[in-house]
Structure formats: C-alpha cells, structure tokens
Protein: maleylacetoacetate isomerase
Amino acid sequence: MAETKPILYSCRTSSCSFRVRIALALKRIDYEYRSVSLLTHEQFGEFMKINPMAQVPALVVNGKTLCQSVSILEFLEEKYPEIPLLPSDPFDRAVVRELVELVNSGIQPLTNDSPVEYHSSDPAGQSAWEKHWTTKGFTALETRLAQTSGKYCFGNQITLVDLVVVPQAVNAFKLNIDMSQYPIISRMYTTLMELEEFKTSSPSEQPDYPSELRK
Structure:
C-alpha cells in the first residue's frame, strides 16, 4: 500500500510544533500542514478526537496518529534514518536525550499556558512564573552545553537537542529574558537560525501566521 503524505496538526505559537516542523524540514519530508489555533481555543473542539489532551502537535501517518513532540521526533528518527538527528554512539545518544528532556520536562511544560494560567490570573504573576522556570532551566542547560557543544548543541552534528533549544529560546526572547546570561544558548540560536530548515519552520513562516504581521 502506498504511503500517504503525513499530516501535521500544528500552531505557529506552539514551541513543540516548531520542534517537529524543524525535524520534517531537516529530513526533507513533505507533509500537509493543518492549523489548530490555540489563541481561539480550537484545540478543545473537534481536535480532541485526534488528541484528547488538546495539545499540538499531532502527526498522522498513514491514518495512524502520534502525539507528544518528542515521541514524534523519535518516530521520525527511526522511520527516516537517512539524515540522522541522533549520534551513532549509544552513550552519546543518551546524552542528547538527556539534554532534550532538560528542556522538554524541565522548562517547556512549566511555562505552557495551562500551568501558567492556573498559577495566576495576574499577567505580572504569570510572567514572573515563566521567567523563573525558564531561567532555572537555561542556567542548567548552559552548564551542560559548555560540556557538550561544538558548532551545535552536541558537537558538530545537528541533533534533537538543537530542535528543542531554538523554540525555547524564541519563547525566552518573548519574555524579555536577558540572554546575555546564556552565551552558548544565544550562539546556538543565532547559528541554527541561519539554516534554511530552521528559518522556514519558524512561526512567522507558517500558513497560520497573520498576513498583517508579515514584513
């Protein structure tokens, strides 16, 4: 049976969707983009039949659905190994996964809209919460990257770490966090965003980015 084009349910404002878009671009995978607006709470409608957690991204491959961005990244790595995003050495692969989880478990879920809004209804309180967990995580990440980075986050090969660091850095910029505290993370962001795959995967390049905001 011929394979069908993968469908990515995504939102331009979602850092987790950003991760998957980068992976699809790096692996040269053609896919259909379907927008789910988190701003208008579209995820709580029909989309819940696709993901009961009401979260993006979701990837549909040949009629089968995968949710959770890191699970999707691991699937893409196994199904499309020609352009690898994990090192060949088992220990190195584990280190990359550790760094991914530093962001995926230690920063992103704590700064997502749901816990932020549950923590406080006050915008100042929400911002303080997001900044606290982002700076805590980035301080640890900066220390680890001092040990692992080369041109990219892990040596000189683009890996899954790079795919989670860039979207999280974008969120940090939105929070007006002083990124001079994190020179390695800042360098990674600048270096990676010069690559076409990262540029075309960025929020402003997506179909659901408002036309009036385009330069």
Notes: The chain is about 45% helix and 5% strand. The chain has a mean pLDDT of 92.
